[in-house]
Design a protein that fits this description.
- It is a single chain.
- By secondary structure, the chain is mainly α.
- The protein contains 4 helices and 2 strands.
- It has helices spanning about 20-45, 50-75, 85-105, 115-140, and strands at about 5-10, 10-15.
- Strands 1-2 form a two-stranded antiparallel sheet.
- The radius of gyration is 19 Å and the shape is flat.
- The termini are far apart.
């Protein structure tokens, strides 16, 4: 149904589960739930448009994370991986994301500022979902 999760190499089990995909799905689920909660709270406070922009920032953060992941995989899987390609890809993506966010924030002020709150919130969720398991792993080492 979902395919094998274990491969056997020389008598040793090798996990085929991609931990990074699981973490990204968890981050997306947390961001979705948080976005819905923000929409409910801002709607109750009669600031629904602000909530829409915060949720939009969460979506843009998720899109950026997915594009970053796909870019890294594409560049590292190529025959000639290059730091320059990775840097140019990141710079172009961040320039477009920043430009779009600034434009939306200016055109739709004062509620448009919520897009930056959503982007920052997504980054916080992403960092926490990455850092906390690593810290737990370091604590368990003798």
């Amino acid at each position: 149904m979902f395919g094998p999760t274990v491969r056997w190499d020389d008598g040793e089990a090798v996990s085929l589960v991609d931990v990074n995909k699981i973490r990204m799905r968890r981050v997306a689920a947390i961001a979705t739930v948080l976005g819905l909660l923000i929409l409910m709270v801002t709607g109750a406070l009669d600031r629904l448009l602000l909530g829409v922009f915060i949720a939009g920032g969460l979506v843009l953060g998720g899109l950026n994370a997915q594009l970053t992941w796909m870019s890294i995989v594409r560049i590292t899987d190529s025959e000639t991986p290059s730091k320059q390609k990775l840097a140019l890809s990141s710079a172009a993506r961040l320039l477009i994301l920043t430009g779009l966010s600034i434009l939306l924030a200016i055109v739709t002020r004062p509620n448009g500022i919520g897009i930056f709150f959503g982007l920052a919130l997504f980054q916080l969720i992403l960092v926490l979902q990455t850092a906390i398991p690593e810290v737990k792993g370091l604590r368990q080492q003798p």
